[in-house]
Amino acid sequence: MSLLAAAGPQLSPVGISTGAATLLVGVVMLLHVQFAAFQQGGAILVPLTDFLGMVRKDERQSRFAHGLLKTMAVVFAFGTALAVFAVMVLFTGLWGHFWVKLLRVMFWPLVIEAGAFVTEVAAIYTLYALWDRLAAVRPLRIGLGIVLAIDEFVQMLMINVVASYMLTPRPAFNVPLILFNPTLVPLEIHRLVGNLAFTGALIALVAGVRFLRARTPEERSHADWMGHFGLVIAIALTALQPLIGWEYLKELQLHAYASWYDMMMGGLSVAFLFQIFLLGLIFTAGIFFMWRRVHAAGIRSPILGICALLSLAAWILAAIPYTVGFTYESAVAASANAPIWQGGTIIPFGAMIPWKITALVAMTFVSITAVTVYLKQNSLGHLRWGEARRGQAMLLVTVGVSVSLIMALMGYIRENGRGPFLITGHMLINQQQNFQAPTAPGPALNGAPPSSVGTGPGPQG
Amino acid sequence: MADESTRSPLAQRLTRPVRGPMAALYRWMDSRLGLADLINKGLYEATPRRGAWAYTLGSATLVIIALQIVTGMFLLWTYVPSVTEAWDSLNFIARHDEFAAIVRGMHLWGAYILFVVVGLHMVRTFVSGSYKRPRELNWITGVILFLLVLGLGITGAMLPWDQAAYWTTVVVTNILHYIPVIGHWAREVWRGGNQVGPVTLTRSFAIHIWLLPALLIPMIVAHLYLLRRHGEFGSWVNYDPDATEEELAERMRHAEPPYPAKPTEPAYAVPADLDEFFPSQTAKDGVVSFILVLIIFIMAIAVGSPLEAPANPAILNYVPAPEWFFLPLDQLLVQFPQSWMIPVGVFIIPGLASMILMAVPFLDRSPERRPWKRPELMVPAGFAVFFLLFETMLAVNRLFNL
Amino acid sequence: MSRRRFMVLVTNLSGAGITLLIAAPIVGSVLSPIFQRRTHPWIRLGDIADVPLAQPTAYVVHFPVTQAWKVPAVPRIVYVVKLNVSGQTQLLSFSNVCTHMECDVHWDTNLNEFLCPCHGGLYSIEGINIGGPPPKPLYRYEHRLDGTILYVRDVLTEA
Ligand code: HEM
Ligand code: FES
Predict the structure, then answer these.
(1) Which helix (H) or strand (E) holds C60?
(2) Domain extent for A295
């Protein structure tokens, strides 16, 4: 706390409204996240597929690893450019006050982050330049891939330390608690799993598009296999997310109640409803893909059919809004928190407990079952690549687009969940823009005590 | 006496004519004990050659269990199982008896490493499908061993009678009273009363040093007997399920005992490439076990075994935390709150999990051993392992951020 | 009955008899705690005149161990709470043993609730379980007031 309380430099911000500054940072960061997530998921998939290609003497996997690495090398530059722009121009120019303070608390994680970045550049471009020559020493190439994966992991861990700290900060004098704050573990796992799923979904998306545009049987065959591969990764890993997300929200409820309230009952609950809608869409489209893909191979799988229907049912259940009004908060404000048949605006079937929980648990188990059954069909050698139909390619595209959307949406929810704070309980958004005096607290929403703003210990202090 | 040609080189050496003053004594002993035969039985054995390093995990487990038994025996030279003296006796060791402190440290770190190694052994036999016909009972005795080791771990943690031990005792014995109908009595039986007290410690002690080992040791004997009876399966890398019948028949002809292991599918009856158990496999076993024991030894000296403040039931600022290998179960206690859900978290979920684990050989009965051809097992198991790790991390996070 | 079957019967019966003779006292000794009688003497907790209103105050009380041989009395914490219920002062004496897994709960002045460190159970100032895993309210000690001196004994009642 002493670090935060120390008088920050009196920076005058660039004359631009808070709304515009927020929008700029938001758009740039959401884009950056998409690149970075792909980068991290890819860094795990490259050595993995390279390894599988080696031990199972599967040319397709090896070729895929190379293609993925080439894509990463190209995309890397864009993602980096965005990050550099955000740090050098947006953070320093528009959010200087916040950035300087954050740097003082998060100096070492950000230094490690920068170091890991250098290693990443080296690893990616070494692999890129020497890929074919390293084919002679395959274990070395895989090893380099693993170095890249670990490096990306460290980078994300460091950024997650910063991000989780902003959401659930602990007293600044307690370094272990700052680093290992309550939301670090859930955020880390949520993102690790999410990035892999996202990469899988992007692969499925590209494969779907390629399949639709394929001219030769070879193109179609490779796109079919790639779509299958990406989709299995996307669905299998997304199946973990309801549980991880639930635990993440639990930590928020305990340690950042205002944010939790905003997400569940307040203004952000609308975004959250859309999020759970997208989740249901991902599972349902993914499982329909498996069902229809197996069908295209001439196999009738009633289990996959039932899974698809159950997933659809769970999706519908999960997507029921809790209130026909805007949010629960507004329903309460309008004294309309009674079931609609009693003149209120509440739809009881939209309640989190037990309905949405039931739907989420169902989605989890149904998708695990579906992935298992689908992989079994594949392991029996029933699928021949290239025999998919256009409908399945469109399902792949649907999954890819929805996963991309859900990533952006979650970024939006997380960054806005802290409102009105930049660092929960410590620093307000409008202390950054239109900066007047460090002591003037902004409007405290959601019952956050204004007295704890700026100085003094936070809610957990 | 066994026929010379079926004797291992070692046994042959042991039975070759002995000269010198001890020759008569040796012959006298051997004709009565049958030592050479015994050694021959124990060591003359064929094992699959490929992937042999993965098959060292079982014997490493055995070595660490032996280490636990020996160090435990000598801890009893000082330790007193009494609420008034247990803590003092260990405190004495910590302050005045450096070697005993190392013994105690090795007992603790031995337990920690044991959990890791048993876990890996289990994962490896699962992935390689070693539990399939005719080795179902190898697996089932294994699962029982695993549960016994867990029981030993948790009762051992109750003995130092410091704060950690006391609260472990309180929570673990208290779980019993959520058993429907007889729960209250079950708790009293372990505690020796309605609250944790002097009798509780002596009972936990008796369970830790007599009851569970008395079950563990025969179970290990059964596990190893079954291993010898059916032969080490190894893993899919030793087999070629697409081989022709002639090739398989040829392999059978050249197989050494104990192959072929009957009854099983011909393709998986005899490994393509065999090696001698002694000394080829034992050398690898030895290296792995030695490294593990070395780690245990170093950790015992470098970190040792902690002793917290003496047990105190009236305390307002102590945060009880279970041993790390029980964190997933502790996290279930958090996730299954209030009345009827508590038994679900403490009995039904762990009970179902153990039952499913036991039933694995009967759920997966196809001859197929290659893991990528068995997604119906590997995929759910993957999720289960993730769940365990995730629960552990959540529990660490919770206790750290209290 | 043939001689052979008779011998089989004798073997089995002897085995069963041996087992029974050894097992009966063992089972009895293992189960004996269930049948033991316990005494619950009154223990002086102390003067509670100074306990402030609505501020749970922890007292350490030494209860004799009645479960076995003679060992030092066990300290336990009794929370004394004075509440103002419609003008009347109500006196409560809680055990601080969590009803979930029996960890020691403490009064958390930030939360204004009793917090259990084990799994995060929460209780209100009346001892009612209001959050986390605990299935029941905190137990109350039977107590007796002699002027301002409070006596308790470890007979616990549910609220
Ligand atoms: C806790 C004490 C245990 C000891 C001392 C032990 C010891 C051994 C040894 C020495 C082997 C042969 C070497 C090897 O394949 O690694 C073996 C094999 C085996 N163990 Fe264990 N084990 C234990 C626990 C378990 C557990 C927990 C399981 C599984 C639930 C298990 C399942 C098996 C199986 C299926 C085999 C046969 C492997 C094959 O033939 O390929 N064991 N065990
Ligand atoms: S023991 Fe108190 S919450 Fe579990």
Answers:
(1) strand C57-63
(2) 186-434+449-461
SS3 of chain B:
CCCHHHCCHHHHHHHCCCCCCCHHHHHHHHHHHCHHHHHHHHHCCEEECCCHHHHHHHHHHHHHHHHHHHHHHHHCCCCCCCCCCHHHHHHHHHHHCHHHHHHHHHHHHHHHHHHHHHHHHHHHHHHCCCCCCCCHHHHHHHHHHHHHHHHHHHHHCCCCCEHHHHHHHHHHHHHHHHCCCCHHHHHHHHHCCCCCCHHHHHHHHHHHHHHHHHHHHHHHHHHHHHHHHHCCCCCHHHCCCCCCHHHHHHHHHHCCCCCCCCCCCHHHCCCCCEEEHHHHHHHHHHHHHHHHHHHHHHHHHHCCCCCCCECCCCCCCCCCCCCHHHHHHHHHHHHCCCCCHHHHHHHHHHHHHHHHHHHHHHHCCCCCCCHHHCHHHHHHHHHHHHHHHHHHHHHHHHHHCC
Q: Give me ligand 2 centre to Cα C63, in Å.
A: 23
Apex CA A30: angle with CA A25 and CA A35, to 5°? 125
Could you say which of A149, A181, A213 is where a domain stops?
Answer: A181
Which range marks the domain in which residue C17 is found?
Answer: 1-35
Q: ipTM of this model?
A: 0.92
- Which residues in chain B have their CB less than 8 angstroms from residue C104's CB? 313-316, 318
Is the residue at B287 inside a domain? yes
Whether A198 is covered by a domain: the verdict is yes
In tens, the pLDDT along B306-344 reads: 999 999 999 898 999 999 999 999 999 999 988 888 999
pLDDT score at A15: 65
Domain total in chain B: 1
Domain identity same for A210 and A323: yes
Q: A175-231 pLDDT, tens per residue? A: 888 888 888 999 999 999 999 999 999 999 999 999 999 999 999 999 999 999 999
If asked whether residues C21 and C60 sit together in one domain, one would say no
Please tell me whether residues A174 and A212 are part of one structural domain.
Answer: no
Look up the domain containing B231 and give its range: 55-311+318-400
**Does B28 map to a domain?**
no
Q: Is B268 in the pocket of ligand 1 (CB under 6 A)?
A: no
**pTM of this prediction?**
0.89
**Is the residue at A224 inside a domain?**
yes
pLDDT tens per residue across span A293-328: 999 999 999 999 999 999 999 999 999 988 887 788
Q: Answer yes or no: is A439 within a domain.
A: no
CA of B58 to the centre of ligand 1 (A): 5
Clarify whether residues C85 and C27 are in a common domain.
Answer: no
The answer on A204 and A168 residing in a single domain is no
Q: From the list A176, A189, A368, which residue is nearest B380 (CB)?
A: A368
| CATH number of C144's domain | 2.102.10.10
| Among chain A residues, CA nearest to B396 | A185
Domains in chain A: how many in total?
2
Q: In chain A, which residues touch B (CB < 8 A)?
A: 56, 170, 176-177, 180-182, 184-186, 189, 236, 239-240, 243-244, 247, 251, 255, 368, 371-373, 375-376, 378-379
CATH label of the domain that carries residue B245: 1.20.810.10
Taking the CA atoms of chain A, what radius of gyration do you get in angstroms? 24
C20/C75 same-domain check: no
Contact yes or no for B375 and A372 at CB 8 A: yes
Distance from Cα C92 to the centre of ligand 1, integer Å: 57
Question: Is A141 domain-assigned?
Answer: yes
